[in-house]
Amino acid sequence: MYTITKTVIIFFVICVFPVSGLYAARVASCSGTVEIKKERSEEWQKARRGMRLLAGDLVKTSEKSNARLEIAKGYTVKLGPDSTVAIRDLGYVEKKGIFPSVILFLGEIYTEVKSKFSKGAEVHTQTCVIGVRGTKFTTRVAASGISGVKIDKGEVDITSVNKKKDPEMLPGGSMAVIDFDLDIKTYKNKKEWEAFLFNAEEEFAKDPGKLGKMSSEIFDSMIKELETLKEEYGKTYSEIEKIKHRKKKSMENGQREDVIAANDEIYVKSFDLHNLVRKTKHIRLRTDAVVFLIKDKMSKENSSKVDRIKELSSF
User: What is the CATH number of domain 24-206?
Assistant: First the structure.
């Protein structure tokens, strides 16, 4: 466990807040029964038009209900009935690859992205990452865990969470699904796309264990990623401590320019540190999305993997 230093605290005030803390999504409109659960809260509250949403907050709709969320200027998400989505990130630092994003837990959302966020904004599911390239598209997540995407206009890049293949570019009018093996299948015919989604649900009904197997592979990839992030965090933290020690010596010797240079290094390294924490939170959120689908069907093996994810992300 690492201790938060004064440097990191100062960094959070002057750098992290502008990236994410002061940015907020909002409920643009809602109809029917729409509820919100704030991050670190266990209680759901009634959504109201104009409510602010921060990273980690969840929004869900009930039967015959819908909601439209403004994630950022020019980036809107409309939830269909019986859908749950989480705000994944609200920052925008293009050089660091930080863009606004949501993760769909279950149901269907319609996304429209334009303005400066058109190249970088993302939509995530348990099984894939959809990189927006200025477009309008629909994303579905079924109870089986199968994700589907249909592009109405523009284009997107889609990547499976196992990252075994390069992203696939999907132009307007095309469709894709991520199957139980986490492979991407593309379609030009809507009926064939919908038929696959329907058959996948029937396949899942006959063999619910398919979701558990797919979840196990997702957990494995996240554990591997977290182990790398934790190692990087430790190295970066140690580097900051060394720079602080060098800065102290420079202050004692009256070397003003060296102190300024050290402060610049600390600032950059602190941003890297925050970015690693941000990535860790993203993994925890995807874990929550997978657990949301498995619910009471969690195997002992997958339960152990979830515990391991929590342990690795607690730094």
Answer: 2.60.120.1440
